[in-house]
Amino acid sequence: MEKTIPFWEGVFRQDDEGGSLLGNKCSACGRIYFPKAQFCFDCLAQDLEEVVLSRRGKLYSYTIGRLPAAHFEPPYALGLIDLPEGLRVFAPLQFSGEESYRIGMAMEVTIEALWKEGDQQVIGYKFRPVV
Questions:
Q1: Residue 80: domain span
Q2: Stated pTM of the model
Q3: What gap in Å lies between CA 107 and CA 81, rounded to an integer?
Q4: I want to staple 24 with a disulfide (CB 3.0 to 4.6 A). Which of 12, 48, 88, 114 is the partner?
Q5: pLDDT confidence bin for 11, thresholds 50/70/90
């Protein structure tokens, strides 16, 4: 049986709705970070609390990779997603080769397998178009 491991601990969680990204928010000035920061870069406060980020956002930009990457076989899609919290997240996009992405389209996060390492399935977040 394959063991599943996250590509990065504490960055996302799986839930009944598919999953969510986890960031943190400065208790002093309210700035939100993803991935989580150790201290606030704006006011230097060290009191940050974990927040669950919005599952949906808008596609700011994307590219289709046509050359092999460390963990992705071509073609693959990568994009920048603007979240309502004022964050822009860089992420792989769900891609089968037939998607037609448009700047500004609604996207939602999903947690799924990214690649395999030996007998371990590495899981992480991707974004997909909202249907």
A1: 3-18+55-129
A2: 0.88
A3: 8
A4: 48
A5: very high
Residue 25 lies in a domain: no
Pairwise CA distance, residues 2 & 4, whole Å: 6
What's the Cα-to-Cα distance from 117 to each of 6, 24, 34, 96, 104, rounded to whole Å? 12, 29, 26, 22, 34
CA 22 vs CA 25, 41, 119: distances in Å: 10, 18, 27
Could you tell me the pLDDT band of residue 1, with boundaries at 50, 70 and 90?
A: low
Residue 81 lies in a domain: yes
Domain count within the chain: 1
Residue 23 lies in a domain: no
